[in-house]
Amino acid sequence: MKGIGKIAAASIISNLPELGYINNKEACSLVGVAPMNRESGRFKGQRKIQGGRHQVRTVLYMAMMSAIQSNPVFKETYQRLVAAGKPKKVAIIACIRKMVVTLNSMLRDGVMWEAPKA
Question: E-strand spans in 1-118?
Answer without folding.
Answer: 39-40, 43-44
